């Protein structure tokens, strides 16, 4: 009897773990990732213009993301920033993979081994200069640019998309690049 309970608990834990890992690559309700995505054009350096703050980016300015191809076809992600409280630069390297078709802007990214989280590109201009990226839920959002600024019209359009999905854009941290 005790072995049966342990086996059932182990199966339940495994199922819950798999569900959690799978759901980490999700997209917020109502959000649609861009279609016709070209990963080659997306590679390179991006400046973080604004974000919904979370623990791994707390107190960071001058935040950037650099995307390049790994040998296995996945995307290498190097996030950098400057912690203005601790007065030091920080960097984190991860890996991104497509959730489905590589022409859809839906990826999952990991900085911690087998644990992935959603990386969903909801808006991207035709020149791949400006992007609206969201995570798995309404707690994660970034405005990215190839330059240290973003035109007001594009910023306004991207913020409207986010607001319409339920994001609290008033809580955005506007990143200083100096």
Describe it.
- By secondary structure, the chain is α+β, with helices and mostly antiparallel strands.
- The protein has a single domain, classed as Calycin beta-barrel core domain (Lipocalin, Beta Barrel), CATH 2.40.128.20.
- Helices cover 22% and strands 39% of the residues.
- The protein is built from three helices and nine strands, in the order H-H-E-E-E-E-E-E-E-E-H-E.
- The chain has helices at residues 2-23, 39-42, 152-165, and strands at 44-52, 60-69, 75-83, 88-98, 106-112, 115-124, 130-134, 141-145, 172-174.
- It has an eight-stranded antiparallel barrel.
- Strand 7 and strand 8 form a beta hairpin.
- The longest helix has 22 residues, at 2-23.
- It starts with a helix and ends with a strand.
- Mean pLDDT is 89; it is low at 2-24.
- InterPro entries: Calycin (IPR012674), Lipocalin_ApoD (IPR022271), Lipocalin_bac (IPR002446), Lipocalin_Blc-like_dom (IPR047202), Lipocalin_CS (IPR022272), Lipocln_cytosolic_FA-bd_dom (IPR000566).
- Pfam families: Lipocalin_2 (PF08212).
- One of its GO terms (cellular component) is cell outer membrane.
List keywords for this structure.
178 residues, alpha+beta, Lipocalin, eight-stranded antiparallel beta barrel, 22% helix, globular, disordered N terminus
Record the strand order, biggest sheet: 1-2-3-4-5-6-7-8
Largest sheet report: 8 strands, antiparallel, barrel
CATH topology name, in short, is: Lipocalin
Q: What is the helix/strand order?
A: HHEEEEEEEEHE
Tell me the β content. 35-45%
Point out poorly predicted stretches: 2-24
The residue fraction in helices comes out at 10-25%
CATH architecture identity: Beta Barrel
Average pLDDT, to the nearest integer?
89
Q: Which CATH class is shown?
A: Mainly Beta
Question: In total, how many beta strands?
Answer: 9
């Amino acid at each position: 009897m005790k072995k049966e309970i342990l086996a059932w608990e182990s199966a339940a834990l495994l199922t819950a773990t798999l569900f959690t890992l799978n759901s980490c690559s999700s997209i917020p309700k109502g959000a649609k990732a861009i279609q016709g995505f070209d990963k080659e054009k997306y590679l390179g350096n991006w400046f973080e213009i604004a974000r919904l703050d979370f623990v791994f980016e707390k107190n960071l300015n001058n935040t950037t993301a650099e995307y390049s191809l790994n040998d296995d076809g996945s995307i290498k992600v190097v996030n950098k920033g400057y912690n203005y409280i601790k007065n030091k630069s920080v960097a984190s390297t991860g890996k991104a993979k497509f959730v489905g078709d590589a022409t859809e802007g839906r990826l999952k990214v990991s900085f911690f081994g087998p644990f992935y989280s959603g990386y969903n590109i909801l808006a991207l201009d035709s020149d791949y200069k400006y992007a609206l990226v969201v995570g798995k839920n309404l707690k994660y959002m970034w405005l990215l640019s190839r330059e240290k600024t973003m035109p007001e019209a594009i910023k306004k359009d991207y913020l409207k998309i986010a607001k319409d999905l339920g994001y609290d854009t008033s809580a955005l941290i506007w990143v200083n690049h100096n």
